[in-house]
Design a protein that fits this description.
Elements lengths: L1 H7 L6 H13 L9 E7 L11 H9 L5 E4 L3 H8 L2 E6 L5 E6 L4 E5 L5 E2 L4 E4 L2 H10 L8 H4 L3 H6 L20 E7 L2
Parallel strand pairs: 2-8
Antiparallel strand pairs: 1-4, 1-8, 3-7, 4-5, 5-6
């Protein structure tokens, strides 16, 4: 998938248009094959950026970030549900991206607010809050957040601290802070 994206984004002036066209083509695919694995790429922790992070900014970082972990989810229903989400006609006006989910037929972007979910063109997905929460839990997204900060998130208020939560100090584990994480979630 990364090779396809790299080939598309060769020239800076045509990059955005090409990615939008690719995303629309993939999201309009009438046949939704069963998903057996997804890539989840995200900014680590409660990152405060001076400007909004666009879908294209996230994709640029994804291309250059190797997968760091593979997690077996072992829940076919989880992957089946993800295969069947639909796009709404409504667009998101002020999107500030934090997470990309890459499946075999689409890119799904999750914003700073936990229930902002859209495609590359900022069209909203019709996906449940619980499903978004489960994706973030399975990918260990919350582990890069300080526990005290988590309590300010709407999804944590609604569903609680994940059972697999284990805080990772993204500043002291390496000499360079961990800014992005890329994990592969697989069906068993």
């Amino acid at each position: 998938m990364a090779d396809i994206i790299q080939n598309i984004v060769k020239t800076p002036t045509k990059r955005i248009l090409r990615l939008i066209l690719l995303s629309q083509f993939l999201s309009l695919n009438a046949c939704t094959p069963t998903i057996k694995e997804i890539h989840v790429f995200y900014l680590t922790g409660d990152v405060d950026t001076s400007v909004s992070v666009s879908t294209s900014d996230l994709l640029k970082e994804y291309i250059h970030t190797p997968c760091t972990d593979t997690i077996v989810v072992g829940n076919t229903l989880f992957f089946d549900t993800l295969s069947n989400i639909k796009i709404k006609d409504k667009r998101m006006p002020n999107f500030d991206g934090r997470v990309i989910i890459i499946t075999n037929n689409r890119f799904i972007f999750i914003g700073r607010q936990p229930f902002e979910v859209c495609d590359f063109s900022y069209r909203q997905f019709d996906i449940s809050e619980k499903m978004v929460y489960q994706i973030l839990v399975h990918s260990k997204y919350f582990n890069y957040w300080e526990k005290e900060t988590l309590f300010f998130r709407e999804d944590i208020k609604k569903y609680g601290i994940p059972h697999n939560y284990c805080e990772i100090d993204r500043f002291n584990t390496l000499k360079t802070p961990i800014r992005f994480c890329h994990v592969l979630l697989k069906d068993s």
